[in-house]
């Protein structure tokens, strides 16, 4: 982590940007007090687009039908809910 005062940061701004792009954290101080932090830019995550997978996913008509009685014992429960 490198700390620079405002005047130094102005004169070396390109170098500070390069350092931040490489992952180094750069602190900019005003009158000796840390005021800002220069960090690498992170590309935003992809935005969710509803309906983007239309036609690629399907749900069976009976997806919410009760399970057969024989299935309950396989889940460690001998009684139906």
TrEMBL record:
<dbReference type="InterPro" id="IPR036165">
    <property type="entry name" value="YefM-like_sf"/>
</dbReference>
<protein>
    <recommendedName>
        <fullName>Antitoxin</fullName>
    </recommendedName>
</protein>
<dbReference type="InterPro" id="IPR051416">
    <property type="entry name" value="phD-YefM_TA_antitoxins"/>
</dbReference>
<comment type="similarity">
    <text>Belongs to the phD/YefM antitoxin family.</text>
</comment>
<comment type="function">
    <text>Antitoxin component of a type II toxin-antitoxin (TA) system.</text>
</comment>
<dbReference type="InterPro" id="IPR006442">
    <property type="entry name" value="Antitoxin_Phd/YefM"/>
</dbReference>
<dbReference type="Pfam" id="PF02604">
    <property type="entry name" value="PhdYeFM_antitox"/>
</dbReference>
């Amino acid at each position: 982590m490198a700390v620079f005062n405002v005047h130094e940061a102005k004169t070396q701004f390109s170098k500070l940007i390069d350092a931040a792009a490489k992952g180094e954290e750069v602190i900019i101080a005003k009158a000796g007090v840390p005021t800002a932090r220069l960090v690498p830019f992170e590309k935003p995550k992809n935005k969710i687009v509803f309906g983007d997978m239309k036609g690629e996913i399907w749900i069976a008509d009976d997806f919410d039908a009760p399970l057969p009685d024989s299935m309950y014992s396989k889940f460690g429960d001998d009684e139906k809910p």
